[in-house]
Design brief:
3 domains; Beta-lactamase; Nuclear Transport Factor 2, Chain: A; six-stranded mixed β-sheet
Length: 550
């Protein structure tokens, strides 16, 4: 060592100058290989760099940093003592940050007492969404089995990293909120959706649909964080970020009604949904899903079963049927070899009226009444309830389907909300709202986002509206919606038990729809695979209305 220092005190020594020239050429080639986005700078000179151990150790470090600057994780890792681990972490960092340019600057090396050589270096990355992020670190280079290798550790990549962690980007928290009708943060997870904790982007629900509005439409507003590699959860912030300039998204959800609905299904074991609407303006006051995830309240597609008899009845009333007409309700009805029956095969006595068969939800009457309906009558009647149009609600919805019937059996099943008739809880709540209001008012969740409401091309008319109101009230006072009979507010309702699947006996969804006679509230309750409309959906609807009355 002493001899080496003595020789190097003569600047004109030939071999030493050649060595420096070769190192300079190697460094220049590395810089040219950067392709315009990577940069590497090596600082050296002085007595420390003349140590042949330091000089030898610098070569793998130079190659490691050059490959990192080129965003070549595997290439960089090949110069470390644990290539697989190094490649894994570097790949994770580069994938998460997606730097457009990386600059690495190494400092003077120093030989330690254990024979390893320590090099400081700095990292500067141009990161979309966060600007330039920089940090300083240190690398140790060790000779094992005669070969110098960079010792890989997580803190070598960034001093704040521990094993099992990586670098990532996180929103700075300035994202605007989804609000309820009172201007408070909306407490409805299945509506609001999810924001990715690392990228800060909305990935579902209203957070995804209005991501640009809530975030300000900018890629800035992110900061460097340490994140757990398994969960992706940010565990430590490493720097500030520019604040985003997002705007809140205000919905029509009434927090009191939303909570009443959520509490009503809190102990329900089946998948369930409740939707509540203001009949006058279509504002969606509550949309509850249990469990969360799928927004079945607004997007679900189900056979509505006997709740659809409100539409069938509108078609029959327009055709001349009267509430006092005699109406037979046998146990069974047969159509081209297909048997239809009432729930639990009930029948009604002779002398029953149309009001009775509606209130008791007699399937066989409606099946046998199919001859009074053309193949398009149900489709046309549904238009008065908004079904058949595309609704501009401010979020994704399923707006129902009532196609023209194609056969006698198809028509028979459609009269009782089966076959190809499909609806969401939102559609069924809107049917009840239309009866209450007298005309269809398209549902709305985010008023500021609605460009053009769908207007129904047909109307129920005052006479049909009045008759439907009378029938839905009778269903509560003397029919299958008796679970609401003692409740205040003059509830009007219709039950539904909708068959689905190919099981024998078939499995059924439980429905109840209705509205309050003394207030602007219409609603729908759905229990997937939930049994009977009256016996199972009815008590849930009753809990909802009781919760509101408190």
């Amino acid at each position: 060592m002493t001899r080496a220092r003595s020789r190097n005190t003569h600047p004109g020594h030939g071999p030493r100058r050649r060595g420096r020239r070769l190192l300079g050429i190697f460094t220049a080639l590395l810089l040219l290989a950067g392709g315009g986005y990577a940069a590497l700078s090596l600082r050296g000179g002085g007595a420390k760099q003349d140590d042949p151990q330091v000089t030898a150790a610098r070569k793998p470090l130079t190659a490691f940093l050059a490959a990192w600057a080129e965003h070549d994780a595997k290439g960089a890792a090949s110069h470390t003592d644990t290539p697989d681990n190094a490649a894994s972490l570097l790949t994770s960092v580069l994938t998460n940050l997606k730097p457009s340019k990386t600059t690495l600057v190494s400092g003077d090396g120093r030989r330690k007492e254990d024979g390893k050589v320590l090099f400081p270096f700095s990292v500067a990355m141009q990161v979309p969404g966060a600007g330039e992020v920089t940090w300083r670190s240190r690398a140790e280079v060790n000779r094992t089995s005669g070969t110098w290798k960079v010792e890989f550790t997580s803190p070598m990549i960034h001093p704040e990293l521990s094993p099992g962690q990586t670098l990532a980007l996180k929103s700075d928290g300035a994202r605007a909120k989804v609000l309820d009708s009172r201007g408070r943060p909306l407490e409805a997870a299945s509506l609001v959706g999810v924001v990715d904790p690392v990228s800060g982007k909305g990935t579902s629900g209203l957070e995804a649909r209005y991501d640009k509005v809530l975030s300000g439409g900018r890629t800035a507003g992110k900061s460097l964080v340490v994140a757990d590699r398994q969960s992706g959860r940010a565990v430590k912030n490493l720097g500030p970020a520019a604040r985003a300039e997002g705007r809140p998204v205000r919905t029509t959800i009434d927090p009191r009604i939303q909570k009443a609905a959520a509490d009503a299904v809190a102990e329900v074991e089946n998948n369930a949904a409740i939707v509540a609407i203001n009949p006058r303006n279509g504002h969606i006051l509550a949309a509850v899903n249990r469990p969360g995830g799928l927004n079945r309240a607004l997007e679900g597609r189900y056979p509505p079963g006997s709740t659809f008899k409100v539409v069938t009845t509108a078609a029959l009333l327009k055709g001349g049927t009267r509430l006092t007409d005699s109406a037979a309700c046998p146990k069974f009805a047969h159509v081209n070899g297909q048997r239809f029956e009432n729930q639990k095969q009930f029948s009604l006595p002779a002398g029953s009226t149309f009001t009775d068969v509606f209130a008791q939800s007699c399937n066989t009457y409606f099946v046998n009444a199919r001859g009074r309906l053309s193949s398009t009558d149900l489709r046309d009647a549904a238009l008065a309830f908004g079904i058949g149009g595309t609704w501009d609600v401010g979020t994704t919805t399923y707006d129902g389907s009532v196609p023209a019937t194609t056969s006698d059996n198809d028509k028979a099943a459609a009269t009782i909300g089966q076959a190809r008739v499909q609806a969401s809880p939102l559609v069924m709540a809107s049917i009840a709202a239309t009866v209450k209001n007298g005309t269809f008012s398209q549902p709305v969740l985010v008023p500021d986002a609605v460009k053009k409401k769908f207007t129904a091309p047909a109307a129920l008319g005052a006479e049909v509206t009045g008759q439907l109101r009378e029938l839905m009230r009778a269903t509560v006072t003397s029919g299958s919606a008796h679970a609401l009979r003692e409740l205040p507010g003059s509830p009007h309702a219709k039950t539904g038990t909708a068959e689905f699947g190919t099981g024998k006996p078939p499995r059924t969804h439980a429905w109840m729809i209705g509205y309050q006679g003394d207030s602007d509230l219409a609603w729908a309750v759905l229990l997937e695979d939930g049994g009977s409309g009256g016996a199972d959906a009815g008590p849930v609807a009753a809990r909802f209305l009781r919760n509101l009355a408190r």
